Amino acid sequence: MTKTALVTGITGQDGYYLSHLLLNQGYRVVGLVSPHRQPNLAKLGNLATQVEIYNVDLRDPLALLNAVEQLRPQEIYNLAAPSFVPDSWKDPLGTLDLITGTATRLLDAVRQVGLSTRFYQASSSEMFGDVLSSPQDEETTFRPKNPYAAAKLHAHWTMVHHRQRYGLFACSGILYNHESPLRPPQFVTRKVSLAAASIKLGLAETLEMGNLDAKRDWGFAGDYVRAMWLMLQANEPEEYVIGTGKLRSVKELVSIAFDSVGLNWENHIVINTNLLRQDEHFQLVANPSKAKKNLGWEPEVSFEALLEKMVQTDIERLQNGSISQATEGKLLVD
Ligand code: NAP
């Protein structure tokens, strides 16, 4: 029997890689997309003809109930979120409503329809926030530091409550930063890959950066969506911390990305203290041993291979005109 998977946030980075994985596994993939975001369906690229799109306002509980009733999915992946953390300070309530509200409405729909649908909630390492110990695992205390993280934590607990009270097969992955050529340019990895590509092609000279000592646990999105899928194939619904377990600094990120195209980063980086982030974390690093033990999950793509792929893809895009430095590279300085 063909399995049906519903995906919110299908037009995002993870939505793309997850849909690709599910289609390869023979799933029918249906993206739940709000009517006002239809223009962004263009981001699906070559997947547009392979997935189905169901128009539904994620803020409308009845519409979501109807969607679950009609589509009768075996699996739901709830990925939709305004995912750029600094933006959550500009609209804390909107962030809360989309992240927590959508999770709650979908879980309630699954409960009301009474199917044995398996549910994945996209949780985030940001929920650990102001950490007291490193690395973090599934037992680490949550100390969120921004509205995005607080909303994710609320959604996370709502998922746990639905599992405990109603017996739903509901899981969440507490995912650390994961990147790909599909990352939007406001994220630091893509900002750097785009700059390295632009400078290599002679379209820019320098790149403004904030704190080069900031550190992250960065992995490849394709590896992380495999973890989501594995969680829903497990015997028991549980939480999993998903990351590489390795902290890398922004300086290493810049150095590896520039080096991959034969550039010396020190000749091109300009420090701009206005770009320093107030809610920066330095010790957010995963202990993914539970995922390795229970799911057999391990990251397969190295940091170096990831960055090389991102820079090369940006070079190709700039050369073939699918992006322009003027539109994508607003953060670059000539
Ligand atoms: P992304 O590329 O930013 O994609 C976000 C998706 O959510 C897009 O499909 C976007 O639609 C949709 N969305 C945003 N605001 C919306 C709104 N107001 N109404 C309806 N849809 C909205 O994010 P991602 O990197 O794929 O991440 C997927 C999920 O994992 C997110 O929940 C994110 O918070 C979480 N997460 C990501 C990371 C990471 O490092 N990538 C780490 C931990 C957790 P449009 O295309 O229309 O904008």
From TrEMBL:
Residues 6-310 form the NAD(P)-binding domain. Its EC number is 4.2.1.47. It holds the Pfam family GDP_Man_Dehyd. It catalyses: GDP-alpha-D-mannose = GDP-4-dehydro-alpha-D-rhamnose + H2O. The active site is at Y176 (nucleophile). InterPro entries: GDP_Man_deHydtase, NAD(P)-bd_dom, NAD(P)-bd_dom_sf. The keyword Lyase applies. Keywords: Lyase, NADP. Its cofactor is NADP(+). It comes from the Bacteria. The keyword Lyase applies. Catalyzes the conversion of GDP-D-mannose to GDP-4-dehydro-6-deoxy-D-mannose. PANTHER family: GDP-MANNOSE 4,6 DEHYDRATASE, GDP-MANNOSE 4,6-DEHYDRATASE. Belongs to the NAD(P)-dependent epimerase/dehydratase family. GDP-mannose 4,6-dehydratase subfamily. This is GDP-mannose 4,6-dehydratase. The gene is gmd.
